[in-house]
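Same chain as my last thread, 184 residues:
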Amino acid sequence: MYKDTTASLFDSFAALLEYPVSDMTEQAERLLEGLTPLFPESAEALKKIVGGRDQLSLSKMRELFTTTFDMQPVCYPYIGFHLYGESYKRGAFMAQLNEAYHAIGYSAEQELPDNLSVILRFIGFDSENRTREFSQALLSDGVLPALEKMLKVFGEGSENPYFAILSALNLFAANTLEKELSHD
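reply #2:
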């Protein structure tokens, strides 16, 4: 059950970090329900956006998403960019991701393979752990260092709801990795 719950939580974080197409308050509330019993620290970080219902209208979240991640972004949602910049190493990293995705029948679809949401869905998608070591390395050497860089651009105590989502994800990913490594 823990594995299925973790996969579902990765998927929920991915959904919150994609362009908003529905009420994010409901998505955040469902994620909060799943996080609270297993990852209370992560749930606490996420509570900051669930309480402010007025600020989470669909149009407001779309505007914030665009200014945060798209148009002259505050924060690029691409793991490879944070790890390697625009160097050939990022291209090699994306090729490695595509190879891992292909091995289990997963696709990045229209997005770049190093997009944070794509990577989170991949980690959750591989619930049979066919690429367990790769996923663990991706979390420890990719997602967590990139999240650290992403969070720094917001500044401490940022009011941007994406800061709260990324903070909660950072805690969740670190705790998940710790639990995974302790079971090895």
